[in-house]
Amino acid sequence: MTSSTKPHPVIFIHGLWIHSAAWEPWIDLFGAHGYAATAPGWPGDGTTVAATRDNPDDLKNVGIGEIVDHYAELIGTPDVKPVAVGHSFGGLIAQELLATGVVAAAAAIDPAPIKGVKALPYAQLKSAFPVLKNPANLHRSVALTEEQFHYAFGNMLTKEESDALHDAWTIPGAGRPLFQDASANFFPHSPAKVDTHLAERGPLLLVSGTDDHVVPLKVTEEVFGKYKKGPADTELTVLEGKGHSLTIDGGWKDVADVVLNWLAAKGF
After folding, report:
1. 96: Cβ–Cβ under 8 A, 6 or more apart, which residues?
2. N-to-C CA span, the chain
3. Apex CA 34: angle with CA 39 and CA 99, to 5°?
């Protein structure tokens, strides 16, 4: 990217249980670096955390396919494709948008696993248990308690910081994406399937915290291994001492700087 070229727009995509408004510090930081950045919510999300909490049924049958289609429709076919930056399930959505050519590049931070990943660490199972323990949750939205959030997201934080993040940003999470992801390897046309062998796609950055419970490092390393068998540009950055809250806790800027530096290096 030359000094006379505007950076690509950036679209931030949140994951389960976190409202899109949590990206506001990222939007401000990226804006200060010249990026036009937005963070539209999932289909069914309210405009605020409170509005989403008040209407949890609006999320209850939203699955991976609906979320991908939602963002693809929002993005459309602009002259300059945006870059997608996603966290957790947002990271999976970002990879799908990249594989289908909707976005020019993608950064997937602690991304939900794609179809084909076999690693299933205990911490990942325990983090998903509040949803997966009841098959009826396939058609419901489920909120995390402070204790569940502290284990899944805030395990590297004090209880006080974890509880503050839970109070500020958590929303009910649609159960369907978790069930779809958990069963992806049993269905050939799973919505969690991503073509990792594409030659013609933009660059992909995978970011993983070493202490993530929701998507442990072992899982993201396996995803990276699948991509490395293909010819397209894929990188993995591992961040020491980071849990799943890494995009919203006190160390968020360290993670944002990793993405900014990568975009600059790639010319976006």
Report:
1. 64, 68, 194
2. 6
3. 50
Q: H helices within 133-158, ranges in order?
A: 146-152
Asked, for residue 82, whether it belongs to a domain, the answer is yes
> Where does 36-184 have alpha helices with state H?
49-54, 64-75, 89-99, 122-132, 146-152, 159-169, 175-182
Look up tokens 């993201």; give the residue: 220
**2: in domain:** no
| Tens digit of each residue's pLDDT (9 = 90 or more) over 217-236 | 999 999 999 999 999 999 99
What domain range is 72 assigned to? 10-266
| Total count of residues recorded for the chain | 268
Q: Give the tens place of pLDDT for each residue, 99-149.
A: 999 999 999 999 999 988 988 888 998 999 889 899 999 999 999 999 999
Does any domain span residue 65?
A: yes
Domain annotation covers residue 5:
no
